[in-house]
């Protein structure tokens, strides 16, 4: 990794970031996925490293280069992401940007599922994945600053406020994904805490990352 400049705002701090989708196998050739590109999470990891933080980035399957100075752990499934996050603790702050698949197929088939020729459909049973953010929120190694993302297509702020409370997070970055945000280069977000809702202007994902990293530095300075 890179050596942080002396006096860097996040020098000596460990920040954990999750990014990208997860893939949940159905059989050896098929999986459940979502439209997350990983761009926002990777930009946040890079922005935190640029402020001197030690950054552990737990990344789902994406085709993006690792930002300079970031330690990257690649995972495929929600359960692998959960284990990698737990293994990376303790952390001063965690920013969970990943679009974790909510459900996985209960017991992926070991062989490719074949059509049986009569039109009978496979019996896919879904089970819920662990909630990594909620687990951190109530865990014994809770990061001092715990930040989630919420992708919403409607009622963006109320849904984010409900998630903040339900998951025990300090901030939720609420993301209006009703347009072409997923995979795109720009983002419209609200920074939601128990005390306030801040609406940020529509801006490039890199600018969201820089602004959030600066806010994280402010918050960690003010409580340490
Ligand atoms: N998250 C997580 N583990 C999960 C699901 C979500 O850590 N199994 C995290 C995401 O990384 C994000 C936050 O929780 O930081 C909110 O994710 P979101 O999908 O918006 O919340 P859900 O509780 O899954 O609600 P929804 O039904 O809207 O998908
Ligand atoms: Ca979800």
Automatic annotation (TrEMBL):
Task: Give positions of region: Phosphopantothenate--cysteine ligase.
Answer: 15-224
Name of protein? Coenzyme A biosynthesis bifunctional protein CoaBC
What is this protein's function? Catalyzes two sequential steps in the biosynthesis of coenzyme A. In the first step cysteine is conjugated to 4'-phosphopantothenate to form 4-phosphopantothenoylcysteine. In the second step the latter compound is decarboxylated to form 4'-phosphopantotheine.
> Carries keyword Flavoprotein?
yes
Residue span(s) of domain DNA/pantothenate metabolism flavoprotein C-terminal: 10-218
The GO molecular function terms of this record are: phosphopantothenate--cysteine ligase activity; phosphopantothenoylcysteine decarboxylase activity
Protein family per UniProt: In the C-terminal section; belongs to the PPC synthetase family. In the N-terminal section; belongs to the HFCD (homo-oligomeric flavin containing Cys decarboxylase) superfamily.
Q: How is the cofactor bound?
A: Binds 1 FMN per subunit.
Q: Where is the signal peptide?
A: none
Cofactor dependence is on: FMN; Mg(2+)
Instruction: Tell me which residues bind CTP.
Output: 102, 112, 130-133, 149, 163, 167
Ordered alphabetically, the record's keywords are: Decarboxylase, Flavoprotein, FMN, Ligase, Lyase, Magnesium, Metal-binding, Multifunctional enzyme
Organism of derivation:
Sphingomonas olei
Q: What reaction gets catalysed by this protein?
A: N-[(R)-4-phosphopantothenoyl]-L-cysteine + H(+) = (R)-4'-phosphopantetheine + CO2; (R)-4'-phosphopantothenate + L-cysteine + CTP = N-[(R)-4-phosphopantothenoyl]-L-cysteine + CMP + diphosphate + H(+)
Q: In which pathway does it act?
A: Cofactor biosynthesis; coenzyme A biosynthesis; CoA from (R)-pantothenate: step 2/5; Cofactor biosynthesis; coenzyme A biosynthesis; CoA from (R)-pantothenate: step 3/5
* Protein EC: 4.1.1.36, 6.3.2.5
Keyword Nucleotidyltransferase among UniProt keywords = no
